């Protein structure tokens, strides 16, 4: 073991460090939460999760524990835009102007599409997010990026939430969202279309951050051999994101818990 005789005897004389049951429980919980997040929880978010579970910890202590357990988060890479506008289609006005914080649920939804690579080829994911709670209320994944892809995601969201008329649906100017078929679908649901400006990457920043988390905090951590495996893994992340992942915009609550807190206060359902 390449240890000197004097070093060995010095180690024998040194008193053993006792780890308390409370500290051991903290270590186990930190390791489990880090594994559950696929190694994506940094010390700030880890501190919030632990406090939510009743641990009395500060960020410095959590950072020390994570360093001791060699738990390190890998850095993300930049998000890349996938959709492009078909110039013969109509474009809706920008009704939001980067105001991503509606005051009630089902007031403003946002949608976008991203690409996902598997061992069998590309897949495309369309989501619908309620900007009030950051909850993904509808999504659809397929091997083709068509208007049907975004249409099916919207159908799932509508069936789940049954929103009233006047809801604003925000998207980029991709051909799927500017198509006559999709505009007709929005009109049928009583929704108003809103679209960002060309080249303004921050106009749909909340959804783009979601895609960044999905890919770099989850999907890229494991091999995605088949399209079916990718579908199941995306579904697993949707459950984790909606039920477990904390958001600073939600007072450090998950999207589902944030909506539940509103139900208790206002009776919204």
From TrEMBL:
What Gene3D superfamilies does its record include?
A: Ribonuclease H-like superfamily/Ribonuclease H (3.30.420.10)
What is the top-level taxon of the source organism? Bacteria
Pfam families for the chain? HTH_21, rve, rve_2
**GO process annotations (BP):** DNA integration
Q: Which residues form the Integrase catalytic domain?
A: 101-263
InterPro entries the record matches: HTH-like_dom, Integrase_cat-core, RNaseH-like_sf, RNaseH_sf, Transpos_IS3, Transposase_IS3/IS150/IS904
One of the entry's Gene Ontology molecular-function terms is: nucleic acid binding
Against PANTHER family, the record matches this protein to: TRANSPOSASE INSF FOR INSERTION SEQUENCE IS3B-RELATED, TRANSPOSASE INSO FOR INSERTION SEQUENCE ELEMENT IS911B-RELATED
Q: Name the chain's protein.
A: Putative transposase
Q: Report the source organism.
A: Allopseudospirillum japonicum
Output the lineage of the source organism. Answer: Bacteria, Pseudomonadati, Pseudomonadota, Gammaproteobacteria, Oceanospirillales
């Amino acid at each position: 073991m390449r240890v000197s005789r004097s070093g060995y005897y010095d180690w024998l004389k040194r008193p053993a460090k006792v780890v308390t049951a409370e500290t051991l429980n903290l270590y186990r919980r930190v390791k489990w939460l880090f594994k559950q997040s696929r190694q994506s929880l940094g010390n700030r978010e880890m501190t919030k999760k632990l406090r939510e579970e009743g641990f009395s910890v500060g960020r410095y202590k959590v950072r020390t524990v994570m360093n001791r357990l060699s738990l390190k988060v890998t850095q993300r890479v930049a998000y890349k835009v996938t959709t492009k506008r078909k110039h013969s289609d109509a474009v809706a006005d920008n009704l939001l102007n980067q105001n991503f914080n509606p005051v009630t649920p089902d007031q403003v939804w946002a949608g976008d599409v991203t690409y996902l690579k598997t061992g069998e080829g590309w897949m495309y994911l369309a989501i619908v997010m309620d900007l009030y709670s950051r909850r993904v209320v509808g999504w659809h994944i397929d091997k083709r990026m068509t208007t049907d892809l975004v249409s099916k995601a919207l159908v799932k969201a509508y069936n789940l939430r049954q929103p009233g008329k006047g809801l604003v649906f925000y998207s980029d100017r991709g051909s799927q969202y500017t198509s006559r078929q999709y505009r007709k679908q929005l009109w049928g649901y009583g929704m108003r279309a809103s679209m960002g400006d060309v080249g303004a990457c921050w106009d749909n920043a909340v959804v783009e951050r979601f895609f960044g988390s999905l890919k770099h905090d989850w999907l890229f951590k494991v091999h995605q051999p088949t399209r079916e495996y990718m579908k199941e893994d995306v579904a697993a992340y949707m459950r984790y994101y909606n039920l477990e992942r904390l958001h600073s915009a939600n007072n450090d609550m998950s999207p589902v818990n944030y909506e539940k807190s509103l139900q208790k206060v206002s009776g919204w359902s």
